[in-house]
Sequence to fold (1196 residues):
Amino acid sequence: MQYLAPTTVDEAVSLLAGASGDCRILAGGTDLLVRMRSDMADPDTVVDLKRIDALKQITPEDGGWRVGAAVSGAEMGEHEGLVADWPGVVEATNLIGSTQVQGRCTMAGNLCNASPAADSVPAMVAAGAVARVVGPNGTRVVPVEEIPTAPGRTSLEKGELIDAIILPERGVRSSDAYLRFIPRTEMDIAVVGCAVSLSLDEDGTCTAARVSLGAVAPTVLLVPAAAEALIGTKMNDAALDALAAACSAAAKPIDDKRGTVDFRVHVAGVLAKRAAVIARKRAGGAA
Amino acid sequence: MALDDKQLYQTREFKVVGTRVKRPDGIDKVTGKARFGADMSAPGMLIARVLRSPHAHARIKSIDTSAAEALPGVHAVLTRADFDEITDDDFTADILDNCMAGEKALYDGHAVAAVAANSPSVAKAALKLIKVDYEVLPHVTDVDAAMAADAPVLHEGRANETVPAGMSPNVLSRYEFGHGDIEAGLAKADRVIERTYRTEATHQGYIEPHACLASMGADGQADLWCCTQGHYMVRNTCAAIMGMEQGQLRVTASEIGGGFGGKTTVFLEPVALALSKKTSRPVKMVMSRSEVLRATGPTASSSIDVRIGMTKDGQITAAFAELRYQGGAYPGSPVEFGSMSAFAPYDLENVKTVGWDVVTNRPKQAAYRAPGAPMAAYAVESAVDELAKGFGLDPLAVRLENAAREGTRASYGPTFPAIGLEATLRAAKDHPHWSAPLGENQGRGVACGFWFNFGGDTCVSLNITPDGTVTVSEGNPDIGGSRASMSMMAAEELGIPYEQVRTIVADTGSLGQNEVTDGSRVTFAVGLATIEAARAAKREMCKRAAQVWGIDEDAVEWEDGAARPAGPNAGKHPPMTIKEIAAIASNTGGPIAGHHEANPEGAGVSFATHMVDTEVDPDTGAVKILRYTVFQDAGKAVHPDYVEGQFQGGAVQGIGWALNEEYIYGDDGVLQNAGFLDYRIPVASDLPMIDTVILEIPNPGHPYGVRGVGETSIVPPLAAVANAVSEAAGVRLTQLPMSPPKVLKAVQGL
Amino acid sequence: MSKIHVTTSVNGDPTEFLCDADETLLDALRDRLGMTGSKEGCGTGDCGACSVTVDGRLVCSCLMLGAEAEGREIGTIEGMAKGDQLHPLQRKFIEHAALQCGICTPGLLVAAKSLLENNPDPTEEETRYWLAGNLCRCTGYDKIIRAVLDAAQEMREAS
Fold:
């Protein structure tokens, strides 16, 4: 195996484009090294992005935030501006692994690992985040939900990398929240994850919402029907029940070692309600 | 062996025993200096890796190692063909077969070949070049399925004479214990309940994977370093497998990073020795976590039927249990211990247990802390709880009403001497935890547990150094502070400060045979031998003083670290301290030492009562442990911190077993969760503080009244948590683990 | 496969080693530098026994390549005591009997030190969550949590 540590994005792109064999990007490494250890990956080349200074930055952009691909979960949690605007995205990223994993893991890596159970992805999807993809043919901007195409697979072309996740401007009376269910209190992969991002008007009516589910389908789901259940309501019990029903209806999970179909379908709705209530409170609505 | 009178418990005031001294290995362990199994290395050593079966059950038609052998850096490839077959000892033959498969691979992860190479990466590459031709066979991993007449068969002709004709060849033994007349007893009950309970296999989960370093010379002498609960066992087992004389193999125990019973056998050691023999180089082997989970001993899974009758005032009239345990691919599930211990906390007129030992395509089970008892207690204590609560009775009062006590004829045969069960129950009843209020969706559970405890072959050598300080050599790896405990007992007996005694774990060349660290035996048996060795040294020191004083040695007594003239000579000579006697030892007969070799009985059974509060989230099935209190009889607690630590550690392992730990097999018989990500042992944030109450009912079989404490603490928690969760959920759960999908299903009828 | 030359700092000592490209920092520490205080319990970031700090940030050394250590400052259990002066956490672990077998102890100490550097006055719950990635199978965590909270108090009072 060859280990390469470029110091610019251009250099990284040309290394990726020119590499032969199995070439993997190393951001935090908390998935890649586990795969290598478990004989699920045996790359010929690893390209480490952490020596690229630009990718280590959290930068204001168009009223929102550009989070570099090598920014760790811990660094996001320590960034007051980001936490204030996107508490759900940050809390979702901060749920990945242990304190130790937080010191390494990245949101972009979590996205490109393409696990349907990735914690930060539903939160990014609900937030309307986009990935900035850089490659031999230039730069393109892609909604994050279009990056994973199947478990372990992404829409990135050869030579492409995500250099940043861009979170949009957070409007007034708006916030987000992410909840996941795990058997223990820490250290597990999400059995179900749910993110809700919403905006309220002055009297507390929900004017916009995005709801996303993890671990209930081959890729993270954006659930428009769940958002519609909230929009235009004051998020009373009936609206929350409709939200839960929409999430349970959208969930198409499998039975596996982490949970059953029935469990996931039910809990998707439970978490959606709970996350919506938290997001509402954060947005300045009723507690 | 009859109890030696002088070993019997005497009431005494202790000066060192019962205090909370600092452990002698503390600094090494907090600074990273302590050397565990994988921390050993040797000049010129090779690294070995194991190729493991990807199939649950397969005939090994052929193994082609030629490409691996041809890889530069590879020094040897090993298969079963490199070992002599063992024909006269089924127990050891099974261990060999488990270390390296013979005709068949019997479970996912079963070792089929090993490579020794000059680097880990070469060894890993070589494994991929070994071609194994498997004929995949049907498999079975569930205990009840394995007992079915048409189940895939692992071995033909291994059942013993206790098994009735016509059963599946996978059923290898039947056990029966009890007395009285079950049907007559049940007829007197106001209610009889009949329930089936199931538990999944759990792993001991020690954080240190198995590791060893073997070095064998052309002269047939060998040295082996390894992490084990018993290096004398490793020596004897490896010598038998390698066809060596035991005296030619010296085994040194490294520090051990947890065992809980799982390191009471061998997995890598014979392979490393055989590779070292083949290459004439030291060979190091370290397992990965996935190998630990796939191929070392978890405990048994179980399926248990219980039938218990109770009168409306809480009297148990009869109790019956039928226990089916699968212990993996070889005989030896702990169903016998389960059958013996199931009803041990009760004084019953009519009691019977029947146990079945069953093989399946899973890894060979190894001992796990009170092997066999936690699942039996789970079934029995769940049923007793359901009966008690059904009558509206206080579950602690019902247990007190039926409690085994001194003079009770135990369900497994013997009559109990002084035991501590009632003391634990009364302490539980009086504890503020029992009367604390509970909130919505919360429930409180209690359960009792029992373990036999054990003595076993033990040797201790205690040396007085020329400056009068003391070294103790014992033969059991220190798994939780036993060097401190031995030093404390030696210091107590000699009347000197704890700091003047240093205890080491001696290699197999230095002492006679020592049983493994099992059966909660070390503080009891090694402690007893340490005290006796100190007494022998004291007798010798009194003799030396008598010689100097020119008086009869019987006229000298030992007190506070010094020989003193006694009787008519009292006061005629100033006391001679241990330091003074040691200083002149060379001139009074030579060096002074004491030693003791024994297989002591009288280990003293142990009982505990656990109390736990849980909260169930009715919308997700999540269970939170809110509060936990352990009440256990420790006999005399030599080092209370370590006693508490055993109580707490056992309780938390039991919580894991009850809630989230399980072996999950796919339809293909492959283990689905061979890692700490999905084999979910409790993490710090899952738990509250674990409160402990130490009861000290002296064990009459030990000079200081010590009982083993290590194992009993894992027996009650499965049932205690199940009883608490069932109360909180409002529905009785009868399967472990009570993972969220199961709890939610029970609560919501999903 | 040619090896990579890495120049780094371990516990303040300038250090160089050669490692394979796919070799973890944990393996480099243990096998190249003889620093076996960091333990491998899982190799997949699930147990925390290999915890070290990199430029002051707590990480699992099994989830990082040795090559990534180039130019970084690595802190391991071997650097926690200053000569014969144990760190207060090390002392409190001994005093509270917060270790039984001791295999998880180095990782727990490194992680706990990182906690107290980030939060000198953690609650019990914060301590339990910070340390959730450090598995201990012997103690049930009770005495570990007590030792960390006691050390935190002592360190606050001393500062």
Notes: The CA atoms of residues 48 and 133 of chain C lie 5 Å apart. The first strand of chain C starts at residue 4 and ends at 10.
